[in-house]
Amino acid sequence: MREFDLAVIGGGLVGGALAYGLARAGRRIALLDEGDVAFRASRGNFGLVWVQGKGLGLAPYGNWTRHAARLWPQFARLLADETGIDVALEQHGGLHVCLSETELTQRVAALAMLVEQAGFERYAFEALDRAALAARVPGIGPTVVGATYCALDGHCNPLRLLRALHAAFERRGGEYLPLHKAERIERRGQRFVVHAAGARIGAAQVVLAAGLGNAALAPQVGLDAPVRPQRGQVIVLERVRPFLAYPLSTLRQTDEGTVLIGNSHEDAGFDDSAGTAVCATLAERALRIFPGLRDVRVTRTWAALRVLSPDGFPIYDRSASQPGAFIVTCHSGVTLAAAHALELAPRIAAGDLGADLRPFSARRLSVSKAA
Ligand SMILES: Cc1cc2nc3c(=O)[nH]c(=O)nc-3n(C[C@H](O)[C@H](O)[C@H](O)COP(=O)(O)OP(=O)(O)OC[C@H]3O[C@@H](n4cnc5c(N)ncnc54)[C@H](O)[C@@H]3O)c2cc1C
C-alpha cells in the first residue's frame, strides 16, 4: 500500500486546484483520476471567469465568486512563475448582451435584486444601452438593445489552466495517478484506504473532487453529493483578427483568435453528444449579436456535462462521521479555481472549512427539502 498525507480523488479543475493548493501547503498528496472514460467538464467548458449574476438565492456564493475573481490575477501569475504556462487570463470586464427591451429590463432587475440581498458584498455593474455598448464593442447587430457589464469578469484558456495546475502540483512533489478510478473508500482506524484500479492508497485525509463521480463516492465517507449532469454545447469558429475586447457570457474570442459560441443548458442525462438543432439556436443568436461572423466557418462543436447540485450552488463539506473526509464540487470550476487553490486547500489541510463556507454544506439541501 502507498501512503500519503492526503488523497484527492478527481483530477479535473476542482481536484487539480485543490491538489496544487495542498501541495503548496507542504502536504504529500496523491491525485487520483479515472481517465478519459469519465465525464470531464474540465475539458469541455467555456473558460469564463464570471461574476455577474452569481449568487441570487445564496449571497455567500456571490461573495465567494467575487473573492475568487479578485484572486485570479495573482493566481495566474503564480502559475506562470511555477510552470511557465500562460493561462491567457484577460480580466477587464465582461458583457451579457440582451436582444430585446424585455430581456434587458429583466436582466437589470435580476442583478439589482442580487446585489440588494442581505449579506451580499455589493459590487458595481453597469447597464449599457445600445449606444454605450456599441462604443465599447463595434460590429453589434441592429437587434441588440444593450448589455450588462461587470468589471470583475474575464476569461482564460481552461485547458492551459488544467495543464498548469497539474504541472505546478507535480513540481511541488505531488503524485498524479491517472487511470486510478476510486472504487471503494475504507476507513481503517484514523486513516482512509482508497481502492483504485487494483492499487491501495492510504491517507489521513481524503478529498472527493470527482465531479459527477462524487455521487457514488460521497456516501462511503458519510457525505452527500446529489449532483446531476447538465449538458452544454459549444461551437468553435475558425480564427479571425481580434475584434472583441471583452468576453460575452455566450461568445468570446480566445487569445489565439478562435471564436467560441456557447453555451446551452440542457437536461439530457448522461448523453454528452453534440447536435445540430441546439447549435443552430446558439449560432442564430450569435449572428444577431455579430452579423459579421456570418461568413466565418465552423471548425467543430462539442458537448460536455456540467456538474450541478440541486440548487446550483457548490457543495463544500467535511464529514461528521468520518473526520478527515471532505467533498468539493461546483459548477464554476474555472471561476473558482483561484479560491480553491489559494483559500480552500489550506483550510482543508488545517481540517476546518471555516464559518464563512458553512452555507455551502449539503445540509442546506435536506433542510430546504424538509421545509
Ligand atoms: C459546456 C460547459 C461550459 C462551462 N463553462 C464554464 C465557464 O465558462 N466558467 C466556469 O467557471 N465553469 C464552466 N463550466 C463548469 C466547469 O467546467 C466545471 O465546474 C469544472 O470543470 C468542474 O470540475 P471538476 O473537477 O469538479 O469535474 P470534472 O472536470 O468532471 O472532473 C472530474 C474528474 O474526476 C475523475 N473521476 C470521476 N470519478 C472518479 C473516481 N471514482 N475515481 C477517480 N477519479 C474520478 C474524472 O476522470 C474527471 O477527471 C462549464 C461546464 C460546461 C460543461
Topology:
Layout: E1 2-9, H1 13-24, E2 29-32, E3 48-49, H2 59-83, E4 94-98, H3 101-116, E5 126-129, H4 130-136, E6 146-150, E7 154-155, H5 158-171, E8 175-177, E9 182-188, E10 191-196, E11 199-208, H6 214-217, E12 228-237, E13 251-253, E14 259-262, H7 276-289, E15 298-308, E16 315-318, E17 325-329, H8 337-350, H9 363-370
Parallel strand pairs: 1-2, 1-11, 2-8, 11-17
Antiparallel strand pairs: 3-7, 4-6, 5-6, 9-10, 10-11, 12-14, 12-15, 13-14, 16-17
Helix pairs in contact: 1-5, 1-8, 2-5, 2-8
The structure holds flavin-adenine dinucleotide.
Describe the structure.
There is one protein chain. Helix 1 packs across helix 8 and helix 2 crosses helix 8 (337-350). The chain has helices at 13-24, 59-83, 101-116, 130-136, 158-171, 214-217, 276-289, 337-350, 363-370; strands at 2-9, 29-32, 48-49, 94-98, 126-129, 146-150, 154-155, 175-177, 182-188, 191-196, 199-208, 228-237, 251-253, 259-262, 298-308, 315-318, 325-329. The strands form four sheets. Strands 1, 2, 8, 9, 10, 11, 16 and 17 form an eight-stranded mixed β-sheet that branches. The longest helix is centred in the N-terminal third of the chain and has 25 residues, at 59-83. Strand 16 and strand 17 (325-329) form a beta hairpin. It has nine helices and 17 strands. It is 31% helix and 25% strand. The protein folds into three domains: 2-51 and 159-227 and 310-370, FAD/NAD(P)-binding domain (3-Layer(bba) Sandwich); 94-150, no CATH class; 232-308, D-Amino Acid Oxidase, Chain A, domain 2 (2-Layer Sandwich), CATH 3.30.9.10. By secondary structure, the chain is α+β, with helices and mostly antiparallel strands. Flavin-adenine dinucleotide binds at residues 9-15, 32-35, 38-42, 44-48, 50, 181-182, 209-211, 213, 217, 232, 234, 263, 304-307, 329-335.
